[in-house]
Every structure is written in structure tokens, then in C-alpha cells.
Amino acid sequence: MVDTRQTIDIPNLAEKARQLRLDILDMTTQAGSGHPSSSFSAVEILVALFFGGILRHRPGDPWWPGRDRFIMSKGHAAPLLYAVLAAAGYFPRQELWRLRQIDSPVQGHPIQGLLPGVEATTGSLGQGLSVGLGHVLGGRLNKLDYRVYVLIGDGECQAGQVWEAAMAAAHFKADRLTAILDYNKYQETGPISREMGLEPLAEKWRSFGWQVSQADGHDIPALISALRSFPQETGRPSILIAHTVKGKGVSFVEADFTFHGRALKPEQAALAREEILYGTR
Ligand SMILES: Cc1ncc(C[n+]2csc(CCOP(=O)(O)OP(=O)(O)O)c2C)c(N)n1
Ligand SMILES: [Mg+2]
């Protein structure tokens, strides 16, 4: 196994993040629907996992039994998942332009089995952490030492099943399970604090028996470092609370939560492309 940790090139990872945002923008604008702001929010998190030496995986051998699993529990951020999987070499990039087309494997929410690298069918929020725990327990039975990473949303944490999974993971001492919480402070219909507050959030996870760490969710080195720093074999699952900005990278999307389930119009996309490439002027 190549230890990619020795070869992490941060400027290259920042460039990857920029390219992923452009792909998400192009996919959703062309489809005329999808979730651009939810996808932009977690770009650096997925860059850290897939290109920062965290996930142990083989894109050319996608169902290798020993692979680490990544589960996109906030399945509406499917454009981000697809863009990352294509960039990692799981399937040809041309597939991205079939987003949300009838009979395409690149559906609006991920469907396990249609594309290599898609580990779980998600989109009905609240379920991915339970699926991830199932994978950890399966690995234990099969004597495989893979780890499982699950990306969950903050609005998703308003769903009761997340807390059932949290409780069960601690009970089963699932220390190969790592959740990453995309804490962008918004869900579909508005701010988390108004719809149903989560705070004190770190304390909640800690009280459920989890190891908790926090980081700036757009700082790739900080994310990599936080993910590497969780003590191993503690008998406790881990969660990284990543503080993010919904719509990150495009100022007028960051400022308007109603972009949640709305693609940019072509003229807006042209402005967004400029910002992603050159920043705000
Ligand atoms: C069980 C369920 N209820 C409602 C929805 C509709 N829905 C899609 S995304 C979303 C908000 C999710 O918010 P969050 O988890 O914070 O994700 P973000 O887009 O902010 O990253 C909702 C309510 C759903 N997909 N599944
Ligand atoms: Mg959110």
C-alpha cells in the first residue's frame, strides 16, 4: 500500500477543490436542478478524504473488500460525490454530464450499484450513519480492518435516527466509524437555530460516547490533521464537526439559502465561474 500521506501537495488539493466546484456548477446548471450550495459546502471535506491520504481505496478495484467505505449520508450533495469519484478515477468524467437524466446512473441522489464508488443509496436523510455502522460491524465479523467515513448534514442531525445510530455505535464500540458533520448552520428551509437548534452539539456527541474534534471545514490541512489525530482503538466512534459555509465559493449563493435545491441560471453560473476561478473582486 502506498502511503499517500508522504506526498500530500496542498496547492494541488486547493486546485482540486476549485475544479470540483466548477464541475458541480456545470452539472447542476446543465441539469437545471440539483443542490449546488449543499455540494459546495463539503468540497474541502471530500478533498481531504479522497486526495489527502485519509481513505484507503483503489478506484481501479472499487469493490476491493479491504477498502475504506465513504458514505454520503446527505445524499442530496450527490453532484459533489460524483465529481469526486470521477476525479479519483472511479468512472469517466463524461458521466457527470448525465446528471438527473432518465436512465442515467448519475441520479439526483446516489444509488448503490449504479456507479463504482457509490457505497450506499442515500437521500432519505438520517440513514447513512446507521448504514456506516452496519459496515463496521460487518467488517468486524469478516475480520477486515477497513474504516468507515460518513458525511452527515446538520439539518440531517434533526432526524432521530442519527441519534439512534450514535447511541448504537457507542454501544458496539465502533471505533472504526468516523462521522464528519458538515456544520453549515442551514438546512432546506432556513437556519438550523431557528428550525430546531442543535447546540450544544459537541457536548451532545461527547455525551453519547463519541470522540469529538472540530475544524474549519474549508481548511484542507486542518481537516486532514483532525482526521489523522483521532486516537485509534479506543472503543469509541469519532466525529469531526467541520464548520462550513453553505454555498462556499460563490458569494451570492453563500448569501441566499434558497439556493438549497435550486440550480444557478446560466447567467448566474457565468458569474459563479468567475468567482470560483478568481475570487470576488
Ligand atoms: C427524511 C428526509 N426528510 C426531508 C428531506 C428533504 N430535504 C432534503 S435536503 C434537506 C435539508 C438538509 O439539511 P442539511 O442536512 O443541513 O444539509 P445541507 O444541505 O445544509 O448540507 C431536507 C429537509 C429528505 N431528503 N429526507
Ligand atoms: Mg446544513
> What is the overall pLDDT average?
96
Number of E-state strands: 5
Distance between the termini: 44 Å
Give the ordered list of helices and strands. HHHEHHEHEHHEHEHH
Poorly predicted runs: 1-5
Q: Strand sequence of the main sheet, in spatial order?
A: 1-2-3-5-4
Tell me the quaternary state: single chain
Q: Which ligands appear in the coordinates?
A: thiamine diphosphate, magnesium ion
Q: What's the number of helices?
A: 11
Q: Identify the overall geometry.
A: globular
Structural classification: alpha/beta
Q: How large is the share of residues in beta strands?
A: 5-15%
Biggest pleated-sheet summary: 5 strands, parallel
Radius of gyration: 18 Å
Estimate percent helicity: 40-55%
Architecture overview:
The chain is an alpha/beta fold and 281 residues long. It has helices spanning 10-31, 36-41, 43-51, 78-88, 128-141, 160-171, 192-196, 201-207, 220-229, 251-254, 266-278; strands at residues 69-72, 148-153, 177-183, 211-216, 238-243. The protein has a five-stranded parallel sheet, with helices on both faces. Strand 4 (211-216), helix 9 and strand 5 form a beta-alpha-beta unit. It is globular, with a radius of gyration of 18 Å. Mean pLDDT is 96; it is low at 1-5. Bound molecules: thiamine diphosphate and magnesium ion. Residues 38, 41, 74, 76, 123-126, 153-156, 182, 184, 186-188, 246, 260 line the site of thiamine diphosphate.
Topology record:
Layout: H1 10-31, H2 36-41, H3 43-51, E1 69-72, H4 78-88, H5 128-141, E2 148-153, H6 160-171, E3 177-183, H7 192-196, H8 201-207, E4 211-216, H9 220-229, E5 238-243, H10 251-254, H11 266-278
Parallel strand pairs: 1-2, 2-3, 3-5, 4-5
